[in-house]
Automatic annotation (TrEMBL):
This is Galactose-1-phosphate uridylyltransferase. Residues 251-445 form the Galactose-1-phosphate uridyl transferase C-terminal domain. GO terms for cellular component: cytoplasm. The lineage of its organism: Bacteria, Bacillati, Bacillota, Bacilli, Lactobacillales. Its EC number is 2.7.7.12. The gene is galT. The keyword Nucleotidyltransferase applies. It is an enzyme of class 2 (transferase). InterPro entries: GalP_uridyl_Trfase_II (IPR000766), GalP_uridyl_Trfase_II_CS (IPR023425), GalP_Utransf_C (IPR005850), GalP_Utransf_N (IPR005849). Belongs to the galactose-1-phosphate uridylyltransferase type 2 family. The keyword Nucleotide-binding does not apply. It catalyses: alpha-D-galactose 1-phosphate + UDP-alpha-D-glucose = alpha-D-glucose 1-phosphate + UDP-alpha-D-galactose. One of its GO terms (molecular function) is UDP-glucose:hexose-1-phosphate uridylyltransferase activity. Pathway: Carbohydrate metabolism; galactose metabolism.
Length: 502
């Protein structure tokens, strides 16, 4: 079988995956050579001319050539930056992507998102290889099946760094792009300290008479994990205005859920400084949760409303009238914003007047009705719990100490990559083998030894299932009204206030 040089092989892949044609081959070869820093493609590696080598495998070889040539160091680039530039050949210019998206939308919203999602994967903007490294499995709990993921594709952010970034607005305004969610990331080459976005595209959409942008997450945690971001840089805010935008979004894209992180440190997500939502065509565990108690909202005659059987205090509202849902949700949010219960460490405002209460909202469209889930959040701290009273408590922080954001609220754990190696050592410890178990895991591991019959065949399963139960406890820690007698009595008091319209 004939051989082909590396640059021509990659050019052929581009032609297969894009609107380039065979007439563009020489042009593409020369462009690729220029990016990699080669002057003669005949001296580069040769390979068999067939379809057995993937586009990403060829991309790896090209970045390796650039590194060997010193091109990356000379141009102050890394492999991620060069890879995005090379894969950008597959992606049409932004105006064309948007034109195609809305042409598909005329057929159906699903056809539009299928087009955009497929393009984002084929161009390696969505890091499918890195995502595939994540460790994922289900765990059955009293609240239903939760999903556990050990995140090996994207580093988690420190909660203190998140809060500092929100306060340091002056520094952010001087950066370009001003945030990793800004519209200016589209096509940005990146820097050694900033992710490359050359092959990145966004779709403008209108929400609440404003321009917002729809894109996919490069490190997706679930199917078609999307981000919807404000055109203007402004802090996260959870209120009637943004809840209306969530409802409008699912009207436009009914197969997607959408939600917002809470808008306060500790209980918020990893980026509080840029108003944005997360969405996806995926059913997270919370969507399957059932109501354990029905309720009414004063002045709002909804199809259905109630408290979910969920580790975090969640109120679900269901109706086909968006305005009625907004009125009901607004009543709940305002009641919670000002609610105090000292016996349960629930405090709406600090001594300095700082707000401590907000919600994490999630919206879906199912069976002809809109669903709004409002998860009550409180970011108070205390001497006993300096990281947050309603944050993972110290005894479970050996598994999870990071913020509990929107995705985890809905029952999908995003656990830190350190756990892959640490849990392997825990398994060896449980089996009585040589190990380097971390001291922070010893108490937990000793308890497992006492409660389980462990052998080489079941040790991984036992550890994984125990991690899942700990995650369930993590969510209980983040819940404001606990699932015990005093917590449920406190919840009844709060619900009564909403039902009578105080």
């Amino acid at each position: 079988m004939a051989e082909i040089d590396l640059f021509t092989a990659f050019a052929k892949k581009i032609i297969e995956e894009s609107d380039y044609t065979i007439d563009d081959e020489i042009y593409l070869v020369n462009q690729i050579m220029g990016l990699v820093g080669e002057t003669n493609h005949n001296t580069t590696p040769r390979l068999v001319d067939d379809d057995s080598v993937t586009t990403l495998a060829l991309l790896d070889q090209l970045t390796a050539v650039a590194e060997k040539n010193g091109t990356l160091a000379l141009r102050q680039m890394n492999t991620d930056m060069l890879g995005a530039q090379l894969m950008n050949f597959i992606v049409p210019r932004p105006s064309q992507v948007r034109k195609m998206f809305w042409e598909h939308y005329q057929q159906s919203p699903r056809q539009a998102t299928d087009y955009f999602f497929d393009l984002s994967q084929r161009s390696n903007y969505i890091k499918t290889r890195e995502i595939s490294q994540n460790i994922s499995y289900p765990v059955d709990t009293q609240y239903g099946t939760l999903q556990i993921t050990i995140n090996l594709s994207k580093p988690e952010k420190d909660p203190k760094a998140i809060a500092a970034a929100l306060k340091n607005k002056n520094q952010q305004q001087s950066q370009y792009p001003v945030s990793q969610l800004a519209k200016e990331n589209e096509g940005y080459w990146g820097r050694l300290d900033y992710a490359a976005r050359t092959n990145h595209r966004v779709i403008p959409i209108t929400l609440g008479h404003e321009k917002w942008y729809f894109q996919y997450s490069p490190y997706a945690y679930f199917n078609e994990h999307a981000i919807v971001l404000s055109e203007n840089l402004r802090p996260m805010h959870v209120d009637r205005e943004n809840l209306s935008r969530l409802l409008e979004f699912v009207s436009k894209f009914p197969e997607y859920f959408i939600g917002s992180n809470a808008d306060l440190p500790i209980v918020g997500g990893s980026i509080l400084s840029h108003d944005h939502f997360q969405a996806g065509r995926y059913e997270l565990p919370m969507a399957k949760a059932v109501m354990k108690e029905k309720m009414t909202i004063a002045g709002c005659d909804l199809h259905e409303a109630g408290i979910l059987n969920w580790p975090m205090t969640t109120i679900r509202l269901i109706d086909d009238d968006r305005e009625k849902l907004l009125n009901a949700a607004d009543r709940i949010m305002m009641a919670w914003q000002n609610y105090d219960d000292a016996s349960l460490s629930i405090r709406a405002y600090g001594d300095d007047g700082e707000r401590h209460h907000t919600v994490t909202p999630i919206v879906r469209f199912r069976s002809g009705h809109y669903e709004v889930d409002l998860v009550l959040r409180d970011n108070n701290t205390s001497d006993a719990f300096p990281d947050g009273i309603f944050h993972p408590h110290p005894d479970v922080q050996h598994i999870k100490q990071e913020n509990i954001g929107l995705i985890e609220v809905m029952g999908l754990a995003i656990l830190p990559p350190r756990l892959k190696a640490e849990l392997a050592e825990v398994a060896q410890y449980l089996l009585g083998n040589d190990n380097n178990i971390a001291l922070k895991h010893r108490t937990w591991a000793d308890a497992l030894k006492q409660s389980e019959v462990i052998n080489a065949n079941n040790v991984t399963h036992i550890v994984q299932q125990s991690v899942g139960q700990i995650f369930s406890r993590v969510l209980e820690d983040a819940g404001v009204f606990k699932n015990d007698q005093s917590g449920q009595d406190g919840l009844e008091k709060f619900i009564k206030q909403i039902e009578v319209g105080e």
